[in-house]
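Running this now, will post back.
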Amino acid sequence: PFDSRGTTSVFFLDPVLDGLGAPSLNDRTERGDDMDVRVMVQDNTGAPVVNADVVITLIGSDGPLDVPVVITVVTDASGMAQDVMTLPANLTVGEASLKAEYAGLPGTTGLVGSNATTRFVVLASTEIVITEAPVSLVAGDAFDVRGTLLDDLGLPLTKDGTPSLAIVHLLVDGVPVSSVETDASNGSFLLSYVLPASTDPGLHQVSVQFKGGRDWVDPIGVGDPANPEYYLPSQTDVDFNVSMPSKILLTSGSGDVDRESTIVISGVLLSQVDDAIPDATIEVWLDGG
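Update: finished.
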């Protein structure tokens, strides 16, 4: 018998590839979040296919998922269908895929099924935990900051499935002062710094910062080139106090004086870097009493 079935085409409207066939920067989703999915089905004349059941399957960047994630959508009068897909919280970061399949309609005057695929980018958050940091320092002291940089699952960051180092930066009062690579196997780091002798006394802040991936994480191009891609930036702050040694430079008050007489003592209170210290209270003792 003559087969007069029409052909069909499935198109992804969201997420959609760019003009070079790569995932769009607009289609980046953090794992564990919801993602909008839209498709269209047309026949060979360009007319919409109405009430078409389209099965959409999620495929991870490292292959099919152990626990399948599948949704079914039904096209409306315009041939379009949309729904929300929740990404697994443990989905591997990178370029994941969606496959849409329309089975068609049986019979000699039915429709031949079709399918389409698209890709999108899966991101993951990170967390910096500081396990050792200064509490109280004297200006000029050296100090260490220890901790770990891990992903949202508490695991080391990876690149192409392999544990990867990353760059973390040490900031003092918001100013970058040093950086170091993390241990690829466990995400640990050790940052060291010598506090300038001229540091003002009082409350200060030390921060450890991870700038995230370079090409797929906002702001684009800011992440260190050595960082594994697809990981979001993070920062953790810790406050600490700084004190500064002082000295008194006497300008008068030495020499002999009669009992019951008055002696005038004058001088200057200075920091260890010879800056004058104003509004301080000076106490004077005789013979240490």
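The two ends are 120 Å apart (CA to CA). More later if anyone needs it.
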